[in-house]
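Running this now, will post back.
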Amino acid sequence: MNSCPLTDEELELSLILAQASKFTYDDELSFANIQKTTGISNVQTFNLNDENQHCISGFSGVYDRFLVVAFKGTDCYKDWIKNSRFSINKTDFGGEVHYGFAQAVLNNWDQLLEVITKSNISQEKSILLTGHSLGGALAILTAFKLNSLPEFSSRIEAVYSYGAPRVGDHNFNLQYRPTHHRFEYNQDPIPSLPSIGYKHTGKRYYLPKDQPIIRTDAQGSEAYQTHIKIASLIAKIFVKNNNFNLISDSIEHVRGVVEDVSDHNIEKYINHIQNYIQFRKIVKGLELGDLKRHGSAIKDVKTGNIICSLLEQTPQGRDELVIQEGTRWFINGVEKQVPLQLSSIATGTSVLNLAINIAGFAYMGKKLKQIENVLNDVRNHQEEKFNLIEEHLHLIHLNIEDVKQQNNDIRQAIFDIYQDDLYSTISNLVAEIETKINYPDRPDDETFKIASHSINLLFQKAQTQQYSLERKNILFVDLAMKGWAVATTIKVYLHLKNRKIDEAENDLATEVIKFKRITTGWAKYLIADEPASSFPNIQDISDIATAYRFTYQVFKNITREQVDRIADISSVDQRLSENEIQNKIDAVEVTFQLNTNRERLNNPEWIKKQIFVVKYLDTLSELLARLESLQDFVKFCKTSGASIDDILLANNTEPALYFQLHSNSNI
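Update: finished.
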């Protein structure tokens, strides 16, 4: 898919003119509201009507360096379809054009030209013409006529149409010169009419439903399926009767095809363009570092305010996130290079889906099932089976060679887990998730009970493990923390589903406090590094007892974002200023460059252990961040009064990453 090729000014104008098109439908225009919403001033209305009842109405006004002329569309498109005859006007427009559209412009042309001339306070202002539906068609033909006049031809900036029908044939299209930005929303059927013999002008910008993007390559999109149906039906009628005149009457036969015109609503165009502009600002803020991702929330770095929540819709039957392919990210199908905050999601943390709905349960259950499969495979291990479980081992930070070389240590640890009730707890949680997915109408009581039991047991498992890098300790804590996070998310979801927001808020606050205590405890232990006695020749290690030691060049595969995430849970690195952080980084570099530290840097086992520490702490930090951002999500539900069904994605939404803008956002 292509990203939107509109310039920043064109994108701004696309929203302003869509809003202007909406105002044309008001029975009593409020000039103050128009100016407040769009910035268009000096508004003057017009209502032109010839003796044959061909009407043109709308308003003109001034915006920045532009004269804006906005044409009113049709109040009821079904009536317009019924009463319009799709016959042809063969004069005045360089080709054949729709008779009704053409006569409305031609019969009122002198009055329309007077409106435009009188409205133009400054002769230097460029002209923008806009309209929704029929209003867009009138804007296109008016632009064509103005372009034929020498005093106007160089001053037509562009036409912006929204859900406009076709107006003319191939020859008209060839003769048409003004720039035309043509917007079409989702499955709006109106741009597909009339069909036979008609062709669109300008460049098409497609607005797909539930995706904050604007595409230019959507000729095969769902929006054109309606057109295909209509064209096929009309063609059948034409062939059967061998009479071209019947085409104008055939519209009655195809009204059922376009019965649903809900996507034709101008509000949907406005909302989509607004969402896209906000989406661009968010991505730009992440790129520049003005915004930062914390779990599933995007925050303003300076104020700490939550700008929006991330909602992740993952594909059924796939394990990986569709938005990540190495260092390339695809956000709603648009490839973005976002080097900060959205890249390098912590290892294994996709076990906690951002979307806490049934589709999210499916993804969480799948990840827990992978963990369960690792335990099962190793329990029944044979040498030839190692290749079958290799792809799963990253979930618990094991390397296949480690398993092969350290049979007694690692395998015994996994056997211990299998025999422990930690394993049975995770298995029961997986089974309950799968049951809830298959039977979504099943009462929530049993799911709530199992989630609550899992939270209590997994917390105890995580809490009782000693701080140690022994495999058994790490595996127990790793699995317990992930399962705990999932169980907590499920419990919160059930509270929200049943509109028990206070209960969700209180339960989540309790779990986050406990989760943070364990997470920061592990960070304090692992970041402190080994005592000096581990490396007799090294006298002072205090300068590298920091998360920022992982910025040193020997750890080139560890990203700065991962380091910052670990610093968030490090008691010695939290709440540092930028200058203090840089001082720590400088101190780390100096310390590592001392000859006395060569023993450490030349030790492959030490380097390997540091990478292991990064992955482990990165996962814990990300899980904590997602639970904390879930608190923000609950708070948003509470303050906005919105239900969870209003906010979360539908189960059939296209897999991607979505933004839920918060009501207090200034973006």
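The chain has a mean pLDDT of 75. More later if anyone needs it.
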